Amino acid sequence: MQAGFGPRLGRSFYARPAQVVARDLLGRVIQHGDCAGRIVETEAYLGTGDLAAHSARGLTPRTRILFGPPGYAYVYFIYGLHECLNIVAEPEGVAGCVLIRALEPLAGIETMRERRKKEDLRSLTSGPGKLTQAFGITRAHYGADLTSGELLVRRGTQEPFQVDATPRIGIRRDTDLPLRFLIRGSPFVS
DNA sequence: AGTTCGATCGCCT
DNA sequence: GGCGATCGAACTG
């Protein structure tokens, strides 16, 4: 079942501008344990000149991973409740990442229902806090290497789809930039 | 050491 | 559509 989603993406995939990686991650498959989901919504956070990005104020203990090599997980805790999963992009030395905002559940759906305590397929992974809960991703995954560990992204299938770009959700600065990407018509977006 | 406020969710109306 | 929950990172003094 695992190999059915294609080969694991390697380091070079992530070593590109954050908005390019965010767009290219659509349609790929995130896997963790027995859970797998197709990425249907992402947001790019740029290292320089992006006031909405956590890296905008420079290197701190929390943001240090964003300045390192790409292909690692940046997981942070927000609003006292939720974990959010980001993937570090850009070459080493340049900050930047992609927030995974929504998935289409593909495998491990019963596990997701148990973790979420919800039955409806649409409510399992249609939001950044929901999908981390459904997949069992926490701050313990901060710094995890997606190119070698049990949390990974696979290439996915090549079904064609159209992409919409909109402003990012829930931010207060740089609100006009069209850095949110989603698969047009997907019922699983946030 | 104290304060502010956020890349959200779910429940209420 | 609005709001309360609840924690910690980061900034101020």
Overview of the structural elements:
- This protein has 190 residues and is an alpha+beta fold.
- The protein has a single domain (2-152, 161-182), classed as 3-methyladenine DNA Glycosylase, Chain A.
- 15% of the residues lie in helices and 28% in strands.
- The protein has helices at residues 11-14, 18-25, 109-116, 128-135; strands at 29-32, 35-46, 73-78, 82-88, 96-107, 151-154, 163-166, 180-183.
- Strands 1, 2, 3, 4, 5, 6, 7 and 8 form an eight-stranded antiparallel beta sheet that branches.
- Helix 3 (109-116) packs across helix 4.
- The longest helix is centred in the first third of the chain and has 8 residues, at 18-25.
- It is globular and about 40 Å long.
- The mean pLDDT is 96.
- It binds a DNA duplex (13 and 13 nucleotides) through residues 43, 45, 52-54, 57, 60-62, 76-82, 84, 86, 99, 101, 127-130, 168-172, 190.
**Topology order in helix (H) and strand (E) letters:** HHEEEEEHHEEE
Q: Uncertain segments of ≥5 residues (pLDDT<50)?
A: none
Q: Helices and strands: which structural class?
A: alpha+beta
CATH superfamily (homologous) name: Methylpurine-DNA glycosylase (MPG)
Strand content: 25-35%
**What's the number of extended β-strand segments?**
8
Number of helical elements:
4
Largest sheet, in brief, is: 8 strands, antiparallel
Radius of gyration (Å): 15 Å
CATH topology call: 3-methyladenine DNA Glycosylase, Chain A
Mean pLDDT: 96
> So what's the CATH class?
Alpha Beta
Task: Please give the domain count.
Answer: 1
Task: Give the N-to-C terminal Cα separation.
Answer: 27 Å
CATH architecture: Roll
**What gross morphology would you assign?**
globular
